[in-house]
Request: fold
Amino acid sequence: MADKILNKLYIKIWRQKNSKSQGAFETYELENVSQGSSFLEMLDILNDQLIREGNDPVAFDHDCREGICGMCSLYINGEAHGPDTEITTCQLHMRKFNEGETITIEPWRAGAFPVIKDLIVNRNAFEEIQQAGGYVSVGTGGVPDGNAIPIGQDDAEEAMDAAACIGCGACVATCKNSSAMLFVSAKVSQFAKLPQGKVEGKRRAKAMVSKMDELGFGGCTNTGACEIACPKAISISNIARLNREYLCAKLAD
Amino acid sequence: MSILDSKAPAGPLAEKWSKHKASIKVVSPANKRKLDVIVVGTGLAGASAAASLGELGYNVKAFCYQDSPRRAHSIAAQGGINAAKNYQNDNDSIYRLFYDTIKGGDYRARESNVYRLAEVSPLIIDQCVAQGVPFAREYGGSLSNRSFGGVLVSRTFYARGQTGQQLLLGAYSALNRQINAGTVEMHNRTEMLDLVVVDGKARGIIARDMITGEIQKHGAHAVCMCTGGYGNVFFLSTNAMGCSGSVAAQIYRRGAYMSNPAFVQIHPTCIPVHGSQQSKLTLMSESLRNDGRVWVPKKKEDAVKLQKGEISANNIKDEDRDFYLERRYPSYGNLVPRDVASRAAKERCDAGFGVNAEGKAVFLDFKYAIDRLGRDTIEKRYGNLFQMYEKITDVDPYSNPMQIYPAIHYTMGGTWVDYNLMTTIPGLYSLGEANFSDHGANRLGASALMQGLADGYFVLPYTIGDYLADEIMVPKIETTLPEFAEAEKSVTDRLSQLFNANGSEPVDYFHKKLGMIMWDHVGMSRNEAGLKTAVSEIRALRDEYYTNVRIPGELDNLNPELEKAVRVADSFDIAELMALDALARNESCGGHFREESATEEGEAKRNDEIGCYASAWEYKGAGQEPVMHKEELVFENVKLVQRSYK
Reply:
């Protein structure tokens, strides 16, 4: 089955030389894009064209191109990772677009994620939150046998549901308050469901929340947009669990 | 006596590692803090090594080219991680895991290293569980297992189809803990561009801040390469876009020997290539072969109709389906190792039985498993993989069989290392996929994750002490040394050479051309004439590259084209070595299939008389022929037999 070809597309895209300069939209015409191409492959074609014309290609983040690394970070036609559910940008295919369509592409927009260049943003704030407490404090070696820590299947599954977060930032980008609650709650929930994580659960919840606040992410107002935008369908019920963990930790103070 | 000293300990196999550990040196805690270690790459091997070394008390600087260590390509591994736990009571053991790995690698790996890998494998599971990695569990709370290709026991631990992700996030969390504690200094979006060697020892690296373009010099008492494989030499592969082998080329040019570069794994279950605009191939986990049955039509006319799109798979009756793996390999069936499954798929497609428009695909069918187990069970086991398949192909794999075809996946070759994981440059270590040591000519499924974590958590932290114990009197390595200036100049010269070529073709144009040469001549089957052609075509294309590549943008700004240009330049050097190594190895083994060396049934025919060695290529300068040294492989514990999965 041969893929259909889109003869013409208009790509309206955010161009910004660096973090200090002003950005602006530019529109480029693009021809001959196979509907079987991924969205990032479409950008490759655009860049090939820009380079050959002597222009600066569009900088965008990407790496694994199979939906798991979380590097790609594009806001497409007003939606994080574009018009499909439970996917990253690399899994979005051009069959979702129509002949002659204008596609608008922007970087994540959030105060805590400053633009580095074009469509690339700085997500170091996520790193700092993880470093504040997103771990079990266990060193290498000297741990018990894996089966010495029995974990019920349902708990393991729920922990896995939360642990599937890829840290892409779509939740922040889509939240009207640029809140990082879904991201933080995923890690806190994973460990809250497991005995290994319980020991320092209170400290973890407080440390990660206070780091999140310090870095300028907004508050959560339970709008639920994050869950819809999340490529891995991380549930907002994790946010409720984070709130419970955090509240318990504060009450214990 | 070869100049390659493997340092493999003498004595019985099962005692080698413990005896070695007892005899190597240990650095005292008070001295560890005086020692600096650089770790390049933060995938499974790098993150686990950096975290473990930080915990021990060394000053660690870690580097990755992504914006976060969590994005390393280890994250994409799907199926699982092996460990000889024998939780299943199915007669698994350390020896059996060792034996399967040696045999799976077609007897082209070093016995002592492979045994150690099997020996530490149970510790990895314990470590990851303690970190909170949510492995699949049974109802009673114990760990679940599943089986993988090339093996008759069930020893693979998994976290849905996202095992690599969860193991990497475990190592990443251990790394984060050390970053928070101040023992590891993390450098994100920073790419290594050269190694600094002082008085014959690895003493630092030259790196580029990918945002500002600043060229940085970093000194250390030891340097560890955890930079993965070089699969992107083929352009189309299952690797992340950054898995270039660039660092392997850099250290090779600085004197580290490159071993078995011809050994590349072709993975049998990838989503097939379509059209000409593709940049990347996507792997479907090998675990799918536990429940999926591989087939093509028995009748050629059915295949032709499928190719033309006149019928679909479901129109072909069971009796007209050729389950060729079950037919050819009755005892392993769909679970034969990857090299065998890949060649069998190619054989059927070459014979005209391919099932997509290009004739380059076979079916992986879950109909039978769904009939037997129900859709729910299949959804629970492989749901995310099925979803991924549907998003990419727009076909529902619950109601239509998947189409799969082999693709470049993992590189078994890599930097030559001794038993301590040290390269031929003292103080330079190579871990995980970046080294050559554990998989021989073919890697069994669920063994890559095992090696990455074994090296990082449980091997290097011990063996590096043996070297660093003699370094405690060496003061901090100053980057004002002339060797740093020389290496920095070599980097800036190289960048400006590429930048000023001012040619007419973008980097990808060359990368795709290189990939075609490699796939045509150094791909799933190789022969002498093709390999000679490949060598000369690679060299000619490399010459053209340096004069005709066009790199836009600036040197001192974020510039993905410049980053790619350096990596592709390095890919040429690796590609050349791959072809030379394949040419020199006039036998078939594992992923290396030389057409001149096949059985009457078309299976790979090993030749232990001439092939029982690991190659180690020495760089002799630009434009010079590299020289191959050989480490003879000695097998004291296993008998070399022709591999059979019938």
